[in-house]
């Protein structure tokens, strides 16, 4: 039997959250990332809509995105061979029965993103000619919404972490976790690993990891989101179309490598699993697209699904557990984990290093109280004794 590998920080999960954390934590600590699959980013990270918008998610999410934009706009030298953000824009549309909702949404949006402006239906149709004039009653545009190169960001994190000495171990699903003598011991098929600090970046499996470690779960709720590609309308150049988003969260669509990416914006509760698209959800998405546009869906090129994992208040869970402080949470990013990863990775690394909450994130109106697992436990903290 080989000896256990000792390190300073073990990160469970090699998706965007774990990779970003490894990139930042490895600046000051020795890191091992444990990924259960054969490659990192297999689950939710690899199934993202790849959209950077500051006008999606609750108020905390939107502020974290504001704190992440600088990194995505100008990543460190050598981080990526290509820009991480590309011009796209996002139009939010409404039917006549949704105009009150559109007005409320617009007011909240402009409070954080002043560049968002109203469009007339005719202006929206001029940008996306397939929108139906008899469907569209109102719209606004976020002109600086962007596409994100998700793979470029994810691989940049992993490459940067490796350059600082981090180890990325795949096929390393966690079989057991315990803590003795101030050390976490994590057993996997790829070996046993020891470290004083454990970061839970396991996405939909985050509560399962907590239970294995003897830590109280935070109530993670994985929700399935479906997407599919269809061919672009014949003879139409869709490359400059913005993302089109329904104000009632019933659908969205955008150009995607010469095809259209479509989602019914579903949020179906699911156990942690390798999610797949249900035929009924694809059919619902196609019907909603046909109702709002002149497109007739005759063929679906590909369909898939991913899990977006939330807690009760919709905000991420980041920071040391209030009962077991050497167990650090980095979960609950919902569908926003790609665009929030720069800021949340720095928050996680700064807290582990004992440097407190990052000033630039705090300036956006986010505090540790907004993210800590303690907020989800009714204000109760019953510090537990971990065997030593």
Descriptive notes:
This protein has helices at 16-25, 59-73, 99-112, 121-127, 150-163, 206-212, 279-292, 337-352, 359-362, 368-371; strands at 5-6, 9-12, 31-34, 51-52, 85-87, 90-94, 117-119, 138-142, 146-148, 167-169, 176-180, 183-188, 191-195, 197-200, 221-231, 243-246, 252-256, 259-263, 268-269, 302-310, 317-320, 327-331. Strands 6, 7, 8, 15, 16, 17, 18, 19 and 20 form a nine-stranded mixed β-sheet that branches. A six-stranded mixed β-sheet has the order 10-3-2-14-22-21, with helices on both faces. A four-stranded mixed β-sheet has the order 1-13-12-11, with no helix packed on it. Helix 1 (16-25) runs parallel beside helix 5, helix 1 runs parallel beside helix 8 (337-352) and helix 2 (59-73) crosses helix 8 (337-352). It is built from ten helices and 22 strands. Strand 11 and strand 12 form a beta hairpin. It is an alpha/beta fold.
């Amino acid at each position: 039997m080989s000896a256990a590998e000792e390190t300073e920080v073990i990160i469970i999960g090699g998706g965007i959250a774990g990779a970003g954390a490894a990139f930042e934590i490895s600046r000051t600590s020795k890191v091992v990332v444990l990924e259960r699959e054969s490659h990192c980013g297999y689950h939710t990270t690899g199934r993202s809509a790849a959209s950077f918008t500051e006008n999606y998610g609750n108020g905390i999410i939107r502020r974290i995105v504001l704190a992440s934009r600088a990194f995505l706009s100008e990543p460190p030298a050598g981080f990526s061979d290509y820009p991480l953000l590309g011009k796209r824009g996002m139009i939010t549309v409404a039917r006549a029965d949704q105009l009150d909702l559109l007005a409320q949404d617009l007011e909240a949006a402009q409070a954080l993103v002043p560049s968002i402006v109203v469009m007339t239906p005719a202006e929206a149709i001029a940008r996306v000619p397939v929108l139906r004039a008899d469907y569209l009653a109102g719209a606004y545009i976020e002109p600086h919404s962007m596409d994100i190169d998700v793979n470029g960001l994810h691989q940049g994190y992993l490459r940067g972490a490796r350059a600082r000495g981090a180890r990325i171990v795949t096929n390393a699903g966690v079989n057991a976790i315990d803590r003795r003598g101030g050390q976490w011991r994590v057993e996997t098929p790829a070996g046993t690993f020891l470290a004083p600090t454990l970061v839970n970046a396991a996405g939909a499996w985050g509560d399962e990891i907590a239970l294995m470690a003897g830590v109280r779960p935070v109530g993670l709720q994985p929700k399935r989101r479906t997407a599919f590609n269809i061919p672009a309308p014949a003879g139409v150049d869709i490359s400059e179309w913005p993302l089109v988003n329904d104000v009632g969260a019933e659908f969205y669509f955008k150009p995607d490598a010469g095809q259209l990416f479509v989602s019914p914006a579903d949020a179906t509760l699911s156990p942690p699993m390798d999610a797949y698209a249900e035929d009924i959800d694809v059919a619902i998405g196609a019907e909603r697209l046909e109702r709002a546009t002149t497109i007739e869906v005759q063929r679906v090129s590909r369909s898939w699904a991913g899990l977006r994992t939330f807690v009760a208040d919709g905000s991420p869970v980041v920071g040391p557990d209030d009962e077991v402080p050497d167990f650090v949470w980095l979960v609950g990013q919902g569908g926003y984990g790609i665009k929030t990863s720069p800021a949340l990775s720095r928050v996680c690394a700064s807290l582990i290093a004992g440097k407190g909450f990052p000033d630039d994130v705090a300036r956006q109106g986010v505090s540790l109280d907004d993210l800590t697992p303690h907020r989800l436990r009714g204000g109760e903290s019953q510090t537990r004794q971990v065997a030593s």
